[in-house]
Structures are given as C-alpha cells and as structure tokens.
Amino acid sequence: MRLLSVRLILSLIFAVTLVSLFSAYNQVRGERRSLRNDLERRAAVLADSLAGNVEPYLESGSLKKLQVIVDRFSNRERLAGVAIFNEKLEPIAQSSGLTQLMQARPGVIAQAIASNQTQSAFVREGKAALHIYALPLTETTHQGRAVLAIVHEASYIQAQTARLWRETFLRVLVQVLLIVLITVLIVRWSIAGPIARASQWLRALRAGKVGSASITMPDFDLLRPLAREMTSIAESLTAARSAAEKEAQLRQAGESSWTSDRLAVHVRSKLGNSRLLIVSNREPYSHVRSGKSIECVVPASGLVTALEPVLRACDGTWIAHGSGDADRDTVDSHDRLPVPPEEPKYTLRRVWLTKEEEEGYYYGFANEGLWPLCHIAHTRPIFRAADWQHYREANIKFARAVLEEMHGTEEPMLLVQDYHFALLPRLIKRKRPDARVAIFWHIPWPNSESFGICPWQRELLDGLLGADVIGFHIQSHCTNFLQTVDRTLECRIDWEHFAINREGHRTIVKPFPISVDFPETPEVKPEQDSAYLERAALLRELGVDALFVGVGVDRVDYTKGILERFLAIERMLEKHPGYQGKFVFAQIGAPSRTHIKRYHDLLADVEAEAERINWRFQSSGWKPIVFLKRHFSHREILRYYRAADLCMVTALHDGMNLVAKEFIAARHDEQGVLILSRFTGAARELLDSVLVNPYDIESTADAICHALEMSPEERAARMRRLRKAVKEQNIYRWAGNLVAELCEVRLELPEESKPKIQVHAAAQLD
Ligand code: F6P
Fold it and tell me: Could you write out the DSSP letters of every residue in 713-750?
C-alpha cells in the first residue's frame, strides 16, 4: 500500500509540475512579449513627437535648444535618456544620465544611420538592461544625417519575469503539498480502508466466524464491483462448510443422508473423466417472448423439479426440446447455453423439432398414445401410424444430438427420461456400446394386457432393452414391465435379480422412487412473519375471506383427478355446512397440452365445474373454489403450500406425484395435512398422509373434514414423519442410487468395437 501511495504521489507531482511549468513558461513569455511591445510602442510615440520638435533646431544648428529639449524629455517614467547623434556617432545633444550609461555606441544607432531606417533593440550596458529606439532624422545642411535615440530602462521587464517564476514555484509547491495530502487521505479512506475491512471480513469468513445471515459483504466503497463475486464465493464457502459440517454430524449420528454436495462428490468419483448427460423432452428453462423482451421460464413439470437440482450439483449436459418461441435466440452456434441463467452450473443443449414432428411425436404418439396407455384413467389411447413414424424420427434426431454431446468422451453416462424416448437407449447403445445408459420411466407401467394393445409394443420394448438400467418409481411398475417383456419378446428373465437377458445384453429393472430437493431451511424467506399473516395476505389477494385454506397444484391433466377433487369439496360442504363461508380451496392449474382436444375440453370442464360449485354455495366475500388458471413459479407456489391447512393430491393414477413431496418439503412449520390418492407412487412412501380413493367422492369428502379437524398434535406428528421420509428419500438419493446402479453395470464391449467407438455415424442411425 505504501509503495502504491509513493508511486501515485510521484506520478501526480510529476504531472502537476510539468503542467504548471508549461503554463508558467507560456505566461512568462506572453507577459515579456507584451511588456516589450508596450515599451517599443511608447518609445516610438515619444520618438515621433520628439523628432518634430528637434528637427527645426537641428536645421538651424541651435545645439543649446536641442540640449534643453533633450533634458526636458529625459525625466519621464522609465526613460533612461534621450540623445541625438550625428553620422560619426558623436552626440549632438544628450541627456545627462546617458553619458554614464552609454559609454560605447550601441550597434543599433550605427545601423539606423547606415540604413536610414528605424531600429530598435534591447541591449545590456554593464549591469543595466536598456531598450534603444533609434529614429533617423531628416538630413540637415549643418549636421548631415542624425539619429534620435530614445533609451529606456528595461530591467523592470526582467524583474517582472522573475516575479512570475517565483510565484509559479510557490504555486507548484502548494499544489504538491495538497496532492500529497489528498492522495494519502484517498488511499487511506477509499483503498486501504476498504481493503483492510475486506481482508478482515475474509479472514473471519475463513475462520468460520461469519454467520450465514451476514454472508453478504458490507459496503466496501471502491471495491463494490468485487462485492458480488466475493459474496458468491463466500456463499459457496459457507455452503461447502455447512455441507461438510452436516456430513460430519450425520456420520457422527450414524445417519446417511444425501445432499447435493454428496451427490456431486459421488457422481464425480463414479464418472472420473467421463460426463453426465441427461435427455428429456421438456427443457428446464425455456425462453419466451413477452412484448419486446425475452423471459426465461421454468416449465411446470415434475421431471424438471426433480432433475434440475441433480444437474446443478453434478454439472453435465441436459439435452431437451427447445420449445420456447425465443429459444433459438438464446443459444450459441452449437445450440447450447449455460444455465441456470443467473448462476450457470451446467449446459443445456436444445434440439429443434418441426411443427409436424412435435405434433406427431409429442402430442400424438407420446401424449395421445403412450400417456393414456400407461395411466389407468379411462381415456382411450389413440395410435396413428403417422404419429409412430414421427416418434421414431424424433428419437433418431435426439439420438444424434446425444451422440454429438458424447463425442470425445469415453464411457459417457446417459440418463434418458421418460416415455418420449423409448427407442433412444437402443439407438445410442448401437453406436456407443461403451456408454452406460439408463432410462427412467416417469409414468406408471401398465399390466401386460393393457400394454399389449399398442401396435408397436415390440419395437418399444426392444428400444428400451438397449438400456443397461430401466428405472420405475415403484416395484409394481417393474413387475408389470418384466411381465410385459416376458409375454412379448424372446428373452430370458432373471426374476431373482430383476434383470432381462436378451441377445447378449443384460438390462437391470429396478425401482428408484423419485423425489424433490429437501432444503433444511426455507428456500424463500416468507414475506410475513407468521403463517397466519401470510394466509391473510394471500386470501386478500384472492378476494375471499375464509378460516381454512386448502390447496391443489397440478397441470390440468385428466389423470390428476381435479374434477373428482371439486366434487369431494362440494360433498364436504353439503355434509358439513358449518364449513360454508369458512373453507376455501385454491386450485392452481397450469394449462397443459391444450393442443390436444381432450386436454382443451378438460380445461373448460374444470372451469365450469368450479363455477357451478361456487354458484351453488358462494356468499358475499366468499366462494369455495378459487381456480387459478395459469403457470405459477415455484416461488409463487411456496406461498400457497405454506398458507394451506391441507393439500389435496387426488390423481387417478400417477407414477409418483411430486406435488405431494413438495408440499411436505415446504412445511418447515410441521403443519398442514396431505390428502393423497392411493393410486400415486407417492402413496407407498407417504404413509402419514390421509390416503383416499379419489373415485370415492363420499370418503374423500370425509377425508377433507378429517384433515380440517385433526388435532394440532396429530397433524404435527404426521407432518414430522412425512418430512423425515421425504428428507431421507430426497432427489439426491434418487440420482445417487441410479448413478451407482449404472456404474455397477459391466459393459459388454466386443474387442473389435473399441477403435470405432469415437466415430459416430449419426447419419446411419435410422
Ligand atoms: O409425468 C410425466 C411427465 O413427463 C412428467 O415428467 C412431467 O411433469 C409431466 O409429464 C409434464 O408433461 P409435459 O412435459 O408434457 O408438459
């Protein structure tokens, strides 16, 4: 710091001195020039007027008169004297002071006589500085040529110049002193001070003395631009430290809980130099136009809720369909972008589909065919040959993108997601036998008879069996799958290990119950101090007055049992009229797949049903159902979870259902009751919820009443146990188990295939 101050001071002094000297030099020159000009002017005026006076006497030879005139003029200000010389340079008349001063004849007088022109010059006579102005006079018969010399004392010009230089010196001196003082103060206040404070803060942080609440760096003035970076380093450090502490505590307590850090370490140790790739249809972030700007949106998807924290923890690449209308504007030339946008942790690679492809593959085969095929929700699947063709082509397109992302990586690990990509495992394995491939089926797998109605069941199963590991949420889906394969394909099923051996390849089939992140402290600080105030604020926004609040959060999908839920609420109000005017149910419904008629109609049905029930019961300031038909961000949904007395998940059939787990994870206050359909995968784990059959309106109505009237002790005890279950079986355990299982797989690599592995002929995929 001292060196910096010295350097700064010296540079400033040098610069200021240089500038001052330069300007002083110019000023002195100007001043001297103007003084000299002034003197010359005065001498010329005097000479002119004197010439007129002396010439007649010169002509008449009256030398005495001349002397009188010369003497009269010679006592003017700064005038050293006046003299008239003849052409031999002898004085004809001369003021008394000059005799002493001008013992020699200055050349300027001789020049004036010789040239017969006015001459002037500054000369030095002994110690005196003089200005001589020599004006040739009219030639006379007595004297011949003569010159009038006006001699001025000029040393005052030098004195003036010297004074200016002195003043400059003093000014520079004062400036230098001020500079030194100001620099020292600035360095001390604005640089040394903040640096000292920052280093003190960092030291405290390193020593673990800065609590998480005070992680944000205090205002460090000049270092403000660094503050954000340092704050995020501090946050990471604090998070890492608390993760390490938590690990140590868990080890101490003999518990083994999964955290994002543990997953990151686990995946890194399993992957080595390899890379984690995930492929899903739905992308974790989509960019959509909103007026003139572009907004980044997190889609309403259980899959995204579950996988996003995994990718954040492990880095890697997520390959997905770019479905946002501004998606193309936000990728690089390889269709990639780093996400999350605010703090990138992994890469998103977008795949583009044409309208026809999306129509046939996503809306058609995946969502009008496979979706109702796998869910027992009494909507008939529709299978069209053209949709199947698009499904195959889309799988090939995604496979190409996956192979590109795998290029150059040995033994990459691929986690394929969901029913959109049944053909992908085979396509990848064929080109990259060194890849470890798992597919996770996020929806139920029906029994073999139901699945058998799909005209392309053999192709779908063959595609799936390209994977090393196939995951479902629960055991019964695994069993259904194995039975389907057993009935459909030529293969050997190892029932003991739940594996399928086919054409020299082994596929493990296992349940991996998916989950959510389970933050120990609230992710978003509640806006209000108490749940009571938070609920009051929410009700105000909804425009209803109520004592009890229920919440439902769903994509508007016929599998979610939203209509059945509304009927149960209606029945509860009929059976228990005391809740009329007191219980309100907020249904968040994100419109989904509305391009499909069944979904489009359902949305209208849900709205109409809410309206019908409201019309029947509503009173001033109250209605039983508030239907919020739009996509809500996770942050927005958290407010509803926290304010609710109960959450209803009444899916008619669901692989897992993550809303149930999200609700539990959000209840740090250990309050709230979960009413859960027994036809969800979550019902196998969340045994302390109030389990219902959503088709049974009567008993679901009773369950609502039971939840509302449950004693606070029972409510808290149930929620505590539910929270323990979700905490233990969180998303990091899901990912950790899946990755561990995949790493156990022995790759069957034929020797001759090894050299070809890096060369992927994507064009030959089909
Ligand atoms: O449950 C299956 C699933 O793909 C989920 O993973 C996801 O939450 C949901 O469907 C969303 O569907 P989509 O991506 O078609 O909107």
Answer: HHHHHHHHHHHHHHHHT-HHHHHHHHHHHHHHPPP---
Instruction: Flag whether pLDDT at 391 surpasses 90.
Output: yes
522 Cα to the center of ligand 1, angstroms: 26
Compute the distance from residue 648 Cα to the ligand 1 centre, in Å: 19
Quote the tokens at residue 639: 């407010």
* Residue with tokens 């050349």, as numbered in its chain: 107
* pLDDT tens digits, one per residue of 143-162: 788 899 998 888 888 888 88
> Is the pLDDT confidence value at 255 over 60?
no
Residue 30 counted as domain residue: yes
> Is residue 249 exposed (0-12), middle (13-18) or buried (19+ Cβ within 10 Å)?
exposed
Instruction: Please name the residues in contact with 561: beta carbons below 8 A apart, sequence gap of 6 or more.
Output: 650, 651, 652, 677, 694
| Structural domain contains residue 737 | no
Instruction: Name which of 178, 172, 157 is nearest 24 in CA terms.
Output: 172
Task: Using the 3D structure, point to which of 221, 255, 289 is the last residue of a domain.
Answer: 255
725 lines ligand 1 (CB under 6 A): no
Residue 204 pLDDT level (bands cut at 50, 70, 90): confident
- Ligand 1: which residue has its CA nearest to atom 6? 303
Give 416 or 131, the one with higher predicted confidence. Answer: 416
**What does the block give as tokens for 162?**
């010297």
Residue 333 or residue 530, greater confidence: 333
Q: How far is the CA of 440 from the centre of ligand 1 (A)?
A: 13
| pLDDT tens-digit readout, 471-483 | 999 999 999 999 9
Give the pLDDT score at 621. Answer: 96
> What is the per-residue pLDDT for 415?
97
271 and 249 in one domain? no
What is the rounded CA–CA span in Å between residue 402 and residue 688? Answer: 41
Sorting pLDDT into bands at 50, 70 and 90, what band is 763? very low
pLDDT in tens, 569-627: 999 999 999 999 999 999 999 999 999 999 999 999 999 999 999 999 999 999 999 99
Beta carbons within 10 angstroms of residue 281's beta carbon: 23
Whole-number Å distance, alpha carbon 727 to ligand 1 midpoint, is 23
Residue 466 and residue 591 in one domain: no
Q: Which domain holds residue 362?
A: 265-515
Q: What single letter denotes the amino acid at residue 736?
A: G
Q: Is the separation of the CB atoms in 150 and 50 below 8 Å? A: yes
CA 299 to centroid of ligand 1, rounded, Å: 10
**Ligand 1 proximity of 680 Cβ (cutoff 6 Å):** no
Q: Whose CA is nearest to atom 14 of ligand 1?
A: 282
Ligand 1 atom closest to residue 303's alpha carbon, by position in its atom list: 6
- Going by C-beta distance under 8 Å and a sequence separation of 6 or more, which residues neighbour residue 163? none
The SS3 call for residue 300 is coil
CATH assignment of the domain containing 152: 3.30.450.20
Comparing 115-124, 133-142, 327-336, 373-382, the range with the smallest average pLDDT is 133-142
Q: Is the peptide bond before 194 cis (omega within 30 degrees of 0)?
A: no
Average pLDDT over residues 730-744: 94
Closest ligand 1 atom, residue 419 Cα: 4
Is residue 504 located within the same domain as residue 535? no
| pLDDT of 751 over the 70 cut | no
Q: What is the CA(456)–ligand 1 centre distance, in A?
A: 22
Please give the DSSP secondary-structure letter assigned to residue 192: I
Same domain, 579 and 537: yes
Ligand 1 close to Cβ of residue 301 (< 6 A): yes
In the beta sheet, which residues pair with residue 692?
677
Contact indicator for 247, 254 with CB cutoff of 8 Å = no
Domain count, the chain: 4
- Does ligand 1 come within 6 angstroms of the Cβ of 442? yes
The answer to whether residue 202 sits within a structural domain is no
Query: How far, in whole angstroms, is CA 536 from its chain's centroid?
Result: 34
Tokens for 697?
């309106």
Pocket lining: 418 vs ligand 1, CB cutoff 6 Å: yes
